[in-house]
What we know:
Strand order of the largest sheet of chain B: 1-8-7-6-5-4-3-2
Helix content of chain A: 40-55%
Largest sheet of chain A: 6 strands, antiparallel
CATH class of chain A: Alpha Beta
Number of helices of chain B: 32
Number of helices of chain A: 8
CATH architecture of chain A: 3-Layer(aba) Sandwich
Largest sheet of chain B: 8 strands, parallel
Distance between the termini of chain B: 69 Å
Number of domains of chain B: 4
Order of helices and strands of chain A: HHEEEHEHHEHHEEEH
CATH topology of the largest domain in chain B: TIM Barrel
Helix content of chain B: 40-55%
Shape of chain A: globular
Strand content of chain A: 15-25%
Oligomer: heterodimer
CATH architecture of the largest domain in chain B: Alpha-Beta Barrel
Number of strands of chain B: 24
Structural class of chain A: alpha+beta
Distance between the termini of chain A: 28 Å
CATH class of the largest domain in chain B: Alpha Beta
Amino acid sequence: xxxxxxxxxxxxxxxxxxxxxxxxxxxxxxxxxxxxxxxxxxxxxxxxxxxxxxxxxxxxxxxxxxxxxxxxxxxxxxxxxxxxxxxxxxxxxxxxxxxxxxxxxxxxxxxxxxxxxxxxxxxxxxxxxxxxxxxxxxxxxxxxxxxxxxxxxxxxxxxxxxxxxxxxxxxxxxxxxxxxxxxxxxxxxxxxxxxxxxxxxxxxxxxxxxxxxxxxxxx
Amino acid sequence: xxxxxxxxxxxxxxxxxxxxxxxxxxxxxxxxxxxxxxxxxxxxxxxxxxxxxxxxxxxxxxxxxxxxxxxxxxxxxxxxxxxxxxxxxxxxxxxxxxxxxxxxxxxxxxxxxxxxxxxxxxxxxxxxxxxxxxxxxxxxxxxxxxxxxxxxxxxxxxxxxxxxxxxxxxxxxxxxxxxxxxxxxxxxxxxxxxxxxxxxxxxxxxxxxxxxxxxxxxxxxxxxxxxxxxxxxxxxxxxxxxxxxxxxxxxxxxxxxxxxxxxxxxxxxxxxxxxxxxxxxxxxxxxxxxxxxxxxxxxxxxxxxxxxxxxxxxxxxxxxxxxxxxxxxxxxxxxxxxxxxxxxxxxxxxxxxxxxxxxxxxxxxxxxxxxxxxxxxxxxxxxxxxxxxxxxxxxxxxxxxxxxxxxxxxxxxxxxxxxxxxxxxxxxxxxxxxxxxxxxxxxxxxxxxxxxxxxxxxxxxxxxxxxxxxxxxxxxxxxxxxxxxxxxxxxxxxxxxxxxxxxxxxxxxxxxxxxxxxxxxxxxxxxxxxxxxxxxxxxxxxxxxxxxxxxxxxxxxxxxxxxxxxxxxxxxxxxxxxxxxxxxxxxxxxxxxxxxxxxxxxxxxxxxxxxxxxxxxxxxxxxxxxxxxxxxxxxxxxxxxxxxxxxxxxxxxxxxxxxxxxxxxxxxxxxxxxxxxxxxxxxxxxxxxxxxxxxxxxxxxxxxxxxxxxxxxxxxxxxxxxxxxxxxxxxxxxxxxxxxxxxxxxxxxxxxxxxxxxxxxxxxxxxxxxxxxxxxxxxxxxxxxxxxxxxxxxxxxxxxxxxxxxxxxxxxxx
Lengths: 219, 814
């Protein structure tokens, strides 16, 4: 698993010919992070059933309602629920870094966002390897499109994430530790088109400097 | 309750409840506690199966019986606990099987990771514990804990409010840490010190992977050790656990040899596993007691042959203190940092009076970075309510520094308050040979399982001979033992006297150090720096004394770790004593000596560094130095107005224009902070009023628990000279209102991260608007837009820290 420092640099809005000193420092922080913290994840695979309310994940007690799940899982016989986290270890690092240097803390925070995504990628690779005959849809998360944020709690409960990963979901559907992701991935017999493009599907859309300036990172 | 059963032989516990219920139809994520009302027959049947299989203890179905977890179920903790214990009791009727009140995690994260205060967690556990005793439970099982702090809250709640024996088991990952970073030695020594009756590991792993961790646990405790592993690891695709009963038992049995005496199972196990376990243990031990069906008596090692305090052979030659994340075994010289202490430090005193906890944290962080092993924490100062402040300081330091702490006070209330909220095993500084002092402080030390420093003096003063001091040390040791404090937790301070005043005493102190080590075998503490008071070139005398004292047997020097030459002397001593094997640490120390680089490279072209350059380039050290120089010819206010602020503005303008980025803006802010520290120290020296341009409140709204964005804004604003009252995260609207009223605040900043917490922001604004003269309110944060801000009735929207500064300028006119 690797942390590509272009990602955290981008999250911090660093543009143009990036300063070599900034890159060096970002690399050092990324290095320290990846040595100290390994993303952890759990996932479960459920058969997909279609009901009047939406897409039922058989055996989980969960039905995904709305357009997002319907489109993404249209072609799928099974779906994976995934939770991934950097855990409390990252929070401790971040608190300590905030006490030392807010500049480095901001860089560490951005590295953490990239690192938990790398963890999800790793999980996705593992899932793909488990189901060699099947194709994976794009990974999509509560809060994307019309997939409700409140699902984070259901997904964490089904995956026993508090016990398996130490992840809690607060009453306002925040995940704690902060660098945690829940996601759904569909499994299909047919190749799946890339459907997820643009800010609406980005985990960082909430904090994105580009978006705040009315731009996006692809431009 | 008679605890002989714990030391009597091997005990067999039950297996899983949750996963067995799921096999019998409970959906994943369902609440097993409600079955106490809806299907007691099912529960009774499962208990009977476990008892028949050989379980001697069964857990009542109360894992989630706590107020936070039962919220929304319409059931109270008392109802669930009473029903659950009664069901288990019925199933156990006619046997001598014991019923445990089961207490799992609260499902809310404690501070500092989450927002649940330690004190609230304690109250939740207390409610369950009291209900459990009332309902007739025989003992309490605190289990599946991953946060030592939560385990401590639960243990305290049980010990203080019931007479029940209490077992604590925690869940570790393969790397030997829990999710929150707790280590096995930290867990073992903290919980044993606090009075747990048995400790162990449950859940997370199968017996194969848990075995090495159980061995480590046995090596770190004198208590009976519990093993309740999972049935292997779950298959991600199906959630099924991988190990059958036979494989489970074969992997678990070797733990007998490591010293485990209480066995059971966790997720994925069932009565079949317990039956196989009971059979295998019986075969392996070859003995079966007649008077207790299923009871087994192994040939126990010496480890479990007597009660905790008089067990000979002292498993534990070394003292120990820890935080949850950092164990500190006293197997050589360990440096105690002395800097968190107001004596003779005006700036520190000012921080105490103003409750500037960030300043104190900063002092702690510096000492950790300088290589201290333990930090002494002294916040005693006239006008300071030590009992109120010490716990706040302990929490603040532990939020970001993982070193163990030594709480330094003579005030028993302050010590108790500090030890109570401390996460880990702390030290207390200090007691002395006076009987009244010993009787006042030692019970507190014992209760919280701390180590204690004993000063070699008493009501008659400091003995002038080494022998006299050793006699007092002996008295302190005897008193500690009589309170049940083990010898390795008693540290003796042989007392450093100032050599320029009492020259012959230096040799007596060194002699006392040697005698305490040789005759009593205790850890020896010295406040080293005191030796050179009143002499020129103090460092030379201090270092020389330090080296001689370590050679005489000093193990815990209290020094200023920021003085490199002192730490060098310690590093060199560890090479010479052989503690630093292969001189590895020594070599690494000097290999890493290159100074760190600022985030921004030097501009092209040479020339002397100016204060403005140092700020722009984020060079904290240089900025501080240049500020001190500037103060020779400039007063504090003009330094801020004419140099600091313009320099920050320039970086701000570069940031606006996309020539500098957030890390650089923040580096500059930190360099400015260094300048402010110089200014504050200078003002404090002169006894003047602090330079402050206006005070604002900043808070992350209720429901939001992540706050780095708010912290970034605060940092930048503070470095423009504004005085922040940071209320933290998850702040209720009422708390903001109350502070604004009480402190007469003119400017309030609110941050929200999630769409789900925007309503809390709006509510806070509405509440503030009810004031006759409401403050100016600005808002920001991930999901907040200018449109939201306008609609919610905020005065300003800020997209970043820079914009926030501009708003403050408008409000405060500077």
